[in-house]
Design a protein that fits this description.
There is one protein chain. By secondary structure, the protein is an alpha+beta fold. The termini are far apart. Strands 4, 5, 6, 7, 8, 9, 10, 11 and 12 form a 9-stranded mixed β-sheet that branches. A 3-stranded antiparallel β-sheet has the order 1-2-3. It is built from 6 helices and 12 strands. The chain is 23% helix and 34% strand.
């Protein structure tokens, strides 16, 4: 399977592959376990088997998914739909930032990470999301004011995610420096970084393009809930 094909159904390839231990489901449909980022993956993304995953989802739970169109399947509601950009790294390794010392995030930082994500809405984030990869942050005293981390992993692909800065601390380059730190780590491991961003988020897109990402595809993302 080539890299582009894997990215076209990256939710499934992550949850059925390198990150299967963080997910539950069947041979045709999986979700990250409760507490992780609420996402669904399907072996056949264009014809998703919602019936297979329903038993692993509570009524009212909201999940992100991608790759399919048409009406909502029986027992499910489409709550949100929008185009998103999938961007892949296409630049040299960022230079070392000697004066920057981000803090690794761990269980003691979960409450603050969830609070910051709820305020800034960087995408699906749960109290266990930081277990999916390296998450690092910047603090003002004891207060978490910016963070970034790694979510999906599929083959050589590693996703940057959870990129957010408290409004009071925006414009200081914190997101860029956090991302550059993670990018260096991934590239040194032989991984290829990628990320997702809503097409409407033009400010974030410009930042990512300046860093060295290019648009690879523009799939639709849907948020669904089980009735």
């Amino acid at each position: 399977m080539n890299g582009t094909t894997m990215l076209d159904n990256v939710f499934w390839h992550a949850m059925s592959g390198a990150q299967a231990k963080f997910a539950v489901g069947t041979a045709t449909a999986r979700r990250f376990a409760p507490g992780f980022s609420p996402m669904l993956g399907f072996a056949d993304a264009e014809r998703p088997d919602f019936a297979a995953v329903a038993a692993f989802c509570e009524p009212g739970e909201r999940f992100y998914c991608s790759g399919w169109g048409g009406p909502a399947p029986a027992g499910w509601t489409i709550e949100f739909e929008a185009p998103m950009l999938r961007m892949v790294w296409d630049a040299p390794t960022p230079a070392v930032d000697e004066d920057f010392g981000p803090v690794p995030l761990d269980a003691s930082h979960v409450a603050q990470a969830v609070e910051l994500a709820a305020l800034t809405r960087p995408g699906p984030f749960g109290p266990r999301t930081i277990e999916l990869g390296d998450y690092i942050g910047c603090f003002d005293g004891e207060r978490l004011v910016a963070m970034a981390g790694e979510r999906l992993q599929a083959g050589p692909w590693r996703e940057l995610s959870g990129i957010c800065t408290h409004p009071d601390f925006q414009g200081r380059g914190l997101a860029r420096r956090l991302m550059s730190t993670l990018l260096r780590r991934e590239l040194q491991r032989g991984e290829t970084p990628f990320l997702h961003v809503l097409s409407s988020n033009t400010g974030a897109r410009r930042l990512y393009e300046r860093l060295g990402f290019r648009v690879q595809a523009e799939p639709a993302v849907r948020v669904v809930s089980r009735r």
